[in-house]
Every structure is written in C-alpha cells, then in structure tokens.
C-alpha cells in the first residue's frame, strides 16, 4: 500500500497556498511517502522539514483520499509568507498562489497526490 502525507499550507495573512516547484517542472504540496510503521502526522512533519527546513508546530487533518491502492492524507498548516524556506534538492523553487491560480494549474503540471488533493479542495470550494 502506498501511503503519503502532505501539508496544505495556507497563509493566515492572504489565504494563499504554498506549492513547491519540482525539478521536473511540476507543482506539488510539500510532503511524501510514509516510511515503514510511520504514522501520517509524523510523516508530514518530517517530510515538510526535510523539504523546507521549517518545523510544523500545529496542523489539522483535512481529509484522507483512498484511490487505486494509494492513501493520501492531507493536513492544513498555517504559515506566514514571510518565513524563509530553505529548499532541499527535490525542489527548485516555491510559489504562494491564490486559490484561483491553484485551481487553474493543469493536471499535467501537478504530481499525482497534489492533483488528488486539489480535486478534493475543488469539491469543497465550489
């Protein structure tokens, strides 16, 4: 079973969403696969730190998506846009995007878990 945990980071100041820009040119929410016997909340904290050098202090479970042998947990995280991210070599950059801009990202420019998460968010923010 492929289990992943991702941070849906929003700015409390603007409501913008934080997305990483990967080496392959795709956007994604920061996060990744759970290691063996690792709980999803621990995985998202670990992955976010590994990818951004920022520690998550609080988060809320938004939802869990199960699709085609994959489980994707996603958590709401508030982060001020003034925080400086020190990206790992997995990403070449990051962007703070409005919900309007996030929902316009074509599927081919998103990794699979991020596409699933945005699809679920679109259901909620109709």
Output the keywords.
alpha+beta; Nucleoside Triphosphate Pyrophosphohydrolase; 3 helices; globular
Structure description:
By secondary structure, this protein is of the alpha+beta class. The chain has one domain: Nucleoside Triphosphate Pyrophosphohydrolase, CATH 3.90.79. The chain has three helices and seven strands. Strands 1, 2, 3, 4, 5, 6 and 7 form a seven-stranded mixed sheet that branches. The protein starts with a strand and ends with a helix.
Please state roughly what percent of the residues sit in beta strands, choosing from under 5%, 5-15%, 15-25%, 25-35%, 35-45% or over 45%: 25-35%
Shape: globular
Structural class: alpha+beta
Based on the structure given, which CATH architecture is correct? Answer: Alpha-Beta Complex
Element string (H = helix, E = strand): EEEEHEEEHH
Number of domains: 1
Distance between the termini: 31 Å
**Assembly category:** single chain
CATH class: Alpha Beta
Averaged pLDDT = 94
Helicity, in percent? Answer: 10-25%
Q: CATH H-level name... which superfamily?
A: Nucleoside Triphosphate Pyrophosphohydrolase
Radius of gyration: 13 Å
Low-confidence stretches: none
Number of helices, where a helix is a run of at least 4 consecutive DSSP H or I residues = 3
Main sheet characteristics: 7 strands, mixed
Number of strands: 7
């Amino acid at each position: 079973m492929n289990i992943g945990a991702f941070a849906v980071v929003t700015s409390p100041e603007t409501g913008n969403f934080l997305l990483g820009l990967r080496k392959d040119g795709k956007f994604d929410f920061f996060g990744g696969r759970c290691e063996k016997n690792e709980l999803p909340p621990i995985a998202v904290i670990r992955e976010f730190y590994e990818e951004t050098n920022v520690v998550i202090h609080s988060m809320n479970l938004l939802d869990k998506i199960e699709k085609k042998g994959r489980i994707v947990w996603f958590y709401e995280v508030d982060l001020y846009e003034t925080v400086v991210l020190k990206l790992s070599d997995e990403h070449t950059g990051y962007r703070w995007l409005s919900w309007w801009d996030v929902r316009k990202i074509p599927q081919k420019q998103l990794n699979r878990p991020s596409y699933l998460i945005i699809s679920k968010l679109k259901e909620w923010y109709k």
